[in-house]
Amino acid sequence: MTKQLKIAVFHNLPSGGAKRSLYTYIDYLTKHGHIVDVFIPETANEEYLPLEPIANNVIKYDVKPSFFREKIYSIFSYVPAIIKKVSLNNVFNTEKKIAVDLNSSDYDIIYCEQDQFTMTPIIFKYLTKPNLYYCQQPIRTDKILKIVNNQKKKSSIFNNRLIKPFAQYFVNYVETRDYERDLEFAQYSTNLIANSYFSHENILRQYGKNAYVSYIGVDTSMFKPYNLERENFVLSVGTCIPPKGYDFLIKAIAHIPENQRPKLVLVGNSSDEGWVNYLKTLANRKNVKLDIHSMISDVELIKLYNTAKLVVYAPYLEPFGYVPLEAMACGTPVVGVKEGGVKETVQHNKTGLLTQRDEKSFAKAIITLSNNKELWNKFSYNGIKTIQSYWTLEHAGNRLLNHIYRILDNQDD
Questions:
Q1: Would residue 16 be called left, alpha or beta, if left means φ above 0 and alpha means ψ between -120 and 50 degrees?
Q2: How are beta strands 57-61 and 109-115 bridged, if at all?
Q3: Are the C-beta atoms of residues 335 and 356 closer than 8 Å to each other?
Q4: Residue 191 carries which DSSP code?
Q5: Alpha-carbon gap, residue 4 to 404, rounded angstroms
Q6: Phi and psi angles of residue 145, each rounded to the nearest 5 degrees, phi first
Q7: How many CB atoms are located within 10 Å of the residue 314 CB?
Q8: pLDDT at position 148, please?
Q9: How far is 310 from 362, CA to CA, in rounded Å?
């Protein structure tokens, strides 16, 4: 079955890895002759990797503003502007309208990504046409995430001893409500796709639903080796928040002798400013040189991948691990913590080194790869070849398309 498909895409994503993944899938599908129209609420981020240039159409739906929220939340400057103006119920009403419009359409299938407010979007509750849910991850309730998030060294009114108990009660309430809502909405989804076998197991464990794995790919027309001179810094990429493990990286690098110690460069699409300040203080105390960049261009990012000595990666239970693939595509070996989806993207002793979450072991791996030019060259070569043989956009798009055809074939059974 290879007929041309008419596909509707729904998303309410922020900027980040999931949006990049969606962008590459749409680009693949349209380039292979399929019609792809995108349906989004206005809360969806379309500034980062806008879909209009690659999709056939992008249809944007208004979300009714909330006068009360707009006035109350205007006092909190750290809340994104679009969130200030809407209530979740208004987002739900918009997504219901999108579902109603799609149900009366002639699309073969509705491809849905996650929702920045609820994880699983409510749209599944109302869709009657064949659909699939590319679930990057369920809401994460891992104990370790609560522990690392509680490590924030951030001055706040909520740290006041009188307010803190009430603030903690509110946080617990919100987390429980969000978890239950995600679980409820997920039950309406019928065809789940996961980004890794680690995510597949989490979906099975949390939702009680099977999910087929369809690995994403890297745009090798952008992320590729440029044979630039390598500099004495190591690079890590991801939102600057506690679960990304940047404090672990600083502490690990501090174990490297000062005459060999590389600078640590961090790149994120957004940051928790309190955590950024803590990391700067920690790095200064540990005598680790630290640069933090936010919202840089792809051109700048690719240059960093191509001039870094290594990419270091230590997030807690990362569902997939896209950053190591970008690094490998640029010929940069990876040192990572052997957890989560990273075990599926980094091949130990072939494209990089994986260690326990132990600062000294991690530091030793950095030293080993930095000082052994022959090993570095071997991993660099293997990384490029591995990406080209399995992790390109063509491979990823073909995997996704096969799942779409499988789902549509099963509709006829």
A1: left
A2: unpaired
A3: no
A4: -
A5: 12
A6: -70, -35
A7: 23
A8: 86
A9: 12
